[in-house]
Amino acid sequence: xxxxxxxxxxxxxxxxxxxxxxxxxxxxxxxxxxxxNDYLGLAQHPRVREALALAAxxxxxxxxxxxxxxxxxxxxxxxxxxxxxxxxxxRALTFSTGYMANIGVLQALVGRxxxxxxxxxxxxxxxxxxxxxxxTVVPYRHNDLEDLERxxxxxxxxxxxxxxxxxxxxxxxxxxxxxxxEVAARHDAxxxxxxxxxxGVLGKDGAGTLSSLALSAAQAPVLVGTLGKAxxxxxxxxxxxxxxxxxxxxxxxxxxxxxxxxxxxxxxTLASLELVRNEPERRAHLQRLVAQFRDGAQALGLPLMPxxxxxxxxxVGEAETALVQSRALERAGFxxxxxxxxxxxxxxxxxxxxxxxxxxxxxxxxxxxxLAKLDLP
Length: 377
Ligand SMILES: Cc1ncc(COP(=O)(O)O)c(C=O)c1O
Prior knowledge:
Elements: H1 6-15, E1 32-33, H2 46-59, H3 67-71, H4 74-87, E2 91-95, H5 98-109, E3 115-119, H6 124-133, E4 136-140, H7 145-154, E5 160-165, H8 177-186, E6 190-194, H9 209-212, E7 222-226, E8 236-240, H10 242-251, H11 253-256, H12 263-278, H13 280-300, E9 311-317, H14 319-331, E10 334-335, E11 338-339, E12 349-354, H15 361-372
Parallel strand pairs: 1-10, 3-4, 3-5, 5-6, 6-7
Antiparallel strand pairs: 2-8, 7-8, 9-12, 11-12
This protein binds pyridoxal-5'-phosphate.
Pyridoxal-5'-phosphate is lined by residues 97-99, 102, 123, 125, 165, 169, 194, 196-197, 226, 228, 236.
C-alpha cells in the first residue's frame, strides 16, 4: 500500500471511534453547551462585544505586522501592563494563542543540553513545545512529586524546567503547585505553570491558581495564561520578571515571527478583565453550580472524577461508549463532547462537562436529569 494512502488512516480512525469533526454551532440557538471554556460567560458579554467593535472602528481589523515590526499598538501595551498588574508580576507579554505561548516559551528557555520535566497529563501545547525545544523531555507520573524528584536527582542538564498545567484541562484536578515550587527550589530548577483553566476562575480577583496560593515569581518564574477561556476573548500571555519577559521578546520565535493579534482584541480583553476583577459574583455563582453538579451527580452514582473546578468530567473508558453517550446527550439538547485518545490516554475516554457562570441552577438540574438517563459505567 502506498505510504500516501491517507484514506486508509482516516477509515481506521473512524473504525476506532477516534474520528473527530468540528461541530458548527449557531449563536442563534441549538443545544445547551456544557463543554465550552467560557467559564465566566464573558464571550457574549455586551461590554466585551462593544469594546471590540468600538476599537475596530478606530484601529481597523488587522495589526498589519509582527510585534517587532509594525504590528504593535498602544492597546497591546495597555493589555500587557494590566495583565502583569493583575497577576502580580513585573511584566507580561501577549501571544496570539496559548499554544503559541507554550511553544514559544519552551523553545526560548530550553534547548539541547537542558531538560524539561513534564507532568504526563500536560496539555498538548506543552508537550509539543518541549519536543520542539530539543531539550531532553522527562515525563513524570501525574502529580507525583516523588517520581519527579527521583528524575531530578538522576537527570543532569544545564537548565532544568518543571512544567505543569495548574488545572488539568481534561481532568479538572489541580497540580500541587506549592510542593512543586519547593521541589524546584531544592533542585535549582525553574517552575513553569500553564494556568489556562485557572486564570479568571481561581484566586482573588480571578488572578489564577498561583495567586490563590500566593506563589511569587521567585517560586514560579513562568506563568502562562490564556485569554480564550474564562476571559472570553482570544490569545494568551506570559507573566514573570522583567528580565524573563525581555528575554522572551528577543528569543520566543512564536512571538517574533507572526502577525500581532488585532488591536481591537486587546481592547475586548481589557473590558473583560475589568469584569473578571470587579464582578466576583460570577465566580461565586460558578462555584455554587460546581457544588450543585457534584452533589447531584454523586446522588445519581455518576462516575465523577476528583475535581473541584468547573471542569467536571465523567469517566467513561471506551471511546466508542463516550461517543454514543455524547450523541444521546445531544439528542436531549445538551452539547457535551466525548474526549477520546490521543487527548486522553487509551481507555480513558470521558464526557468532559464544564460549567459556566452563564448557566443557571435550572440548567444544571436539567443536565443531571439527562445524565441520569444515560447508561454510564
Ligand atoms: C492547559 C492548556 N494550555 C494551553 C491551551 C492552548 O490555548 P489556546 O487555545 O489559546 O491556544 C489550552 C487549550 O486550548 C489548554 O487547555
